[in-house]
Amino acid sequence: xxxxxxxxxxxxxxxxxxxxxxxxxxxxxxxxxxxxxxxxxxxxxxxxxxxxxxxxxxxxxxxxxxxxxxxxxxxxxxxxxxxxxxxxxxxxxxxxxxxxxxxxxxxxxxxxxxxxxxxxxxxxxxxxxxxxxxxxxxxxxxxxxxxxxxxxxxxxxxxxxxxxxxxxxxxxxxxxxxxxxxxxxxxxxxxxxxxxxxxxxxxxxxxxxxxxxxxxxxxxxxxxxxxxxxxxxxxxxxxxxxxxxxxxxxxxxxxxxxxxxxxxxxxxxxxxxxxxxxxxxxxxxxxxxxxxxxxxxxxxxxxxxxxxxxxxxxxxxxxxxxxxxxxxxxxxxxxxxxxxxxxxxxxxxxxxxxxxxxxxxxxxxxxxxxxxxxxxxxxxxxxxxxxxxxxxxxxxxxxxxxxxx
Length: 405
Description:
By secondary structure, the protein is an all-alpha fold. Helix content is 64%, strand content 0%. It contains 17 helices and no strands. It has helices spanning 21-38, 57-80, 82-117, 131-135, 137-145, 156-174, 178-190, 194-199, 223-238, 248-262, 266-270, 277-283, 285-288, 295-312, 326-343, 345-366, 370-395. The longest helix is centred in the N-terminal third of the chain and has 36 residues, at 82-117. The protein starts with 20 loop residues before the first helix and ends in a 10-residue tail after the last helix.
């Protein structure tokens, strides 16, 4: 998505490190979609991109995070060397680790408070399957802090941390040979594919991490599989992979892939009433499974990303309408707001995790008629925007400016 000087097998340094506006815009869109998808009883989620294809906002988030990491951390590796680059990665992992801890604790406390002080038909700690955590907190706290207990719904950040831990090794390999990087990352992805390995008699070799000590459930997002989409974005931004050309053939191919994905999507079941789709999806989890990041998800996302890149235009010029009409002004405002959310995606994501569960609670109280659902969603969007602007204000460190008279 961004033109950089090509990287050679010896690790030549790309010169351009300016942040690409398309990165922030699409990551901002992903933040809004993730909020919608995470809110229980929210029929807005019937219309998110995940319902119309094989990939979803998670791929957008991870791919764009890979691109952002190439800009932020790759520059440190280039300028200050491997040790300080790895130190910066370690500090970021440390920050995300405590953000993960705090987000879970706040959400668990909120649900416990609703159960403690309210009287409702459902037990809200059960909506996230936190029975074990509250029944036996001592071992679960140990497991949670050591990432051997990763509750569903709180699994994206652990996956992101594990992938960031891989960055120093990838950077070291890139100094040897870029084909070696591709081979190692491809092998990691392959050995994360449990269903494929079982089919060829190598199931015992699967790379996965345990999500809870009382069962054999693995992490919902297997980082050894999901690193493929992260490092695709990373490699594109580093210049290890050349940007694909914009031509009619690739545009048609990408469009055909997306149309094919539509016919095997959940929308095909709900809107087209295609009876064969559900059995097909069940029988082909080996290729479309989300946990291990099935290969058809990857292909579908690459097609979507390519068309998104084409639509945005060089350096995102098509995202900004140049006209003077009211519609052009509204569009420019929309792009500006979404981009702001993308610039502060971690803070927005953390707030959206807690906010989405509270929004689901509100919908339980109000019902899911059109008015309350629209109000809850747009109130959530407003709070996410407020979070982005507040986080940006704090990052600007306004207290360092000159004192007022």
